[in-house]
Write a structure and sequence with these properties.
Mean pLDDT: 95
Radius of gyration: 22 Å
Largest sheet: 8 strands, antiparallel
CATH superfamily of the largest domain: Naphthalene 1,2-dioxygenase Alpha Subunit, Chain A, domain 1
Structural class: alpha+beta
Oligomer: single chain
Length: 386
């Protein structure tokens, strides 16, 4: 399937749902015990099975546009430094100085060397220890063994996927599974670069509560009635699973322009569709024709989460479209997501923790969160008892 056929097939499904007031459905209603959100023991199992024992998306290729680029991420207490070395190869390593364990570098940028702020031990883009003041004081130590601890990482289809612990190498095709790698190749976003500052959102809710708000649009006409409801259809969603991953699509209101036109006159259908991918276990990627929103949702204790938010823009975007994007970006980030989605997540957490409700319910019109939660349970069961 080429990109045009891919876009049109999804647009047809969305238009059918809009016309018939339907949406993609799960087979049954799902009820989860409330304790999966409140139990410290459950969180420990999740961190071990879902984060420390699984490949994870660390960043997009666009965060490392050139040799010498670097970006840092923190996942479940593990600080990670991701670099693109002089040959263009992506590297990942623990962002932990081998002298006394200090975090070496923050943020993102371009560098040839990384110098620890404590005692100025210095590392190159490959993590090799290349400098240390008063080196004679460490005679007898094997310097070759004191580089930054390497972590498995691989790059493909615009994704940088790695592990938080040394071990098996990462295979991007194996991580994505059949179908999804071909689909991401169609979207062709490896060359899309970052714009604006990365944001860190602190949310007063269990990480799965926060994640759940991203995976359905049943709430659009209610929670977002003064914001997104006028921009996108609520309660209309496509759902497709790719192993533990998934894709949803929402229809922008502008899709109404296509209703009475023959398909050969539709033009660029991606202008009317929001493509939303969940990469197991914690990453949400939202595409439109102009840009990508990357949301990495991380546990920060049983009743708190942290969301890393990075934005990417399509190269060569016309000035008027870039201006629209710049205007909308703070509205999405601050008004819609912070002010509504994360606000309601914070209002959810105390209610679940009262012990007065024993289950959390997902309707048939919420197939995506159902799919993710089944994947969490499967991975935890496969990991076995602690």
């Amino acid at each position: 399937m080429d990109r045009e056929a891919f876009d049109r097939s999804l647009a047809r499904r969305l238009l059918h749902h809009i016309e018939h007031r339907t949406t993609d459905l799960a087979e049954d209603v799902m009820e989860l015990p409330a304790e999966v959100y409140t139990s410290p023991e459950q969180l420990e199992r999740e961190v071990e099975a879902l984060f420390l024992d699984q490949p994870l998306l660390l960043c997009l290729s666009g965060a490392l546009p050139d040799p010498g680029s670097y970006v840092t991420v923190d996942v479940c207490g593990t600080p990670v430094l991701v670099t693109r070395d002089g040959d263009g190869k992506v590297r990942a390593m623990a962002n932990v100085c081998r002298h006394r364990g200090v975090r070496v570098v923050d943020g993102r940028g371009t560098a040839r060397r990384f110098t620890c702020p404590f005692h100025a031990w210095t590392y190159d883009l490959e993590g090799t220890l290349v400098g240390m003041p008063t080196a004679s004081a460490f005679d007898g130590m094997c310097r070759e063994d004191k580089g930054l601890v390497p972590l498995p990482v691989a790059e493909g289809y615009g994704l940088v996927v790695g592990r938080l612990r040394p071990g098996e190498p990462v295979d991007v095709d194996g991580y994505l599974g059949p179908g999804l790698s071909e689909e991401l190749a169609l979207l062709d976003f490896a060359g899309w670069g970052t714009y604006g500052e990365a944001h860190v959102h602190e949310v007063g809710a269990n990480w799965k509560v926060t994640l759940d708000t991203f995976r359905e649009n049943y709430h659009f006409d209610h929670l977002h009635r003064a914001t997104l409801a006028s921009y996108a259809y609520g309660g209309v969603l496509t759902f497709d699973a790719f192993g533990p991953h998934l894709r949803n699509c929402s229809a922008l209101r502008s899709i109404d322009e296509l209703r009475d036109r023959p398909e050969e006159e539709w033009g660029d259908v991606s202008r009317h569709v929001s493509y939303q991918y969940s990469l197991f276990p914690n990453t949400c990627l939202t595409f439109d024709s102009r840009h990508i929103e990357l949301w990495q949702i991380l546990p920060d204790g049983v009743d708190r989460s942290v969301v890393l938010h990075t934005q990417f823009v399509r190269p060569g975007l016309p000035e008027d479209e870039l201006a629209t994007l710049v205007e909308m970006a703070p509205w999405i980030c601050e008004t819609v997501v912070d002010g509504e989605d994360f606000w309601v997540a914070g209002r959810t957490e105390p209610g679940i923790r009262t012990g007065l409700i024993d289950t959390v319910v997902f309707g048939r019109n919420e197939p995506a969160p159902q799919h993710l939660h089944r994947g969490f349970l499967t991975a935890i069961e496969a990991a076995g008892p602690r």
